[in-house]
Amino acid sequence: MYYVISCVDKAGHAHVRAENRPAHVDYLKANIDHIVMAGPTTSEDGEAMTGSVLIMEYDSLADAQAFADGDPYKAAELFESVTIRPWKKVLPA
């Protein structure tokens, strides 16, 4: 099953994102088999990262939650909020 993990950064925490980005990217690479797509949300001009959106494939919501809980960004307390929702792909087929 697919899950959308949507994360919003805390305001004024760009330095936390930058400092922890290498560990975050390593974590994503270690879980690459579960990633459908992933990337940051950005400011309107595309210059600043403001959060993350990941579409993951896991057997259960608990597995998706465990992945989100293991993210170095979470340990660094970067996120103001994290939501995880089941997702159904419709298009493209």
Task: Provide the fold topology.
Layout: E1 2-9, H1 14-30, E2 35-42, E3 49-57, H2 61-70, H3 72-75, E4 79-87
Antiparallel strand pairs: 1-3, 1-4, 2-3
Q: Care to describe what's here?
A:
It comes from Denitrobaculum tricleocarpae. InterPro entries: Dimeric_a/b-barrel, Sec-metab_biosynth-assoc, YCII. This is YciI family protein. Pfam families: YCII. The protein is 33% helix and 37% strand. It has 93 residues and is an alpha+beta fold. Strands 2-3-1-4 form a four-stranded antiparallel β-sheet, covered by helices on one side. The radius of gyration is 13 Å and the shape is globular. It has helices at 14-30, 61-70, 72-75; strands at 2-9, 35-42, 49-57, 79-87. The protein contains three helices and four strands.
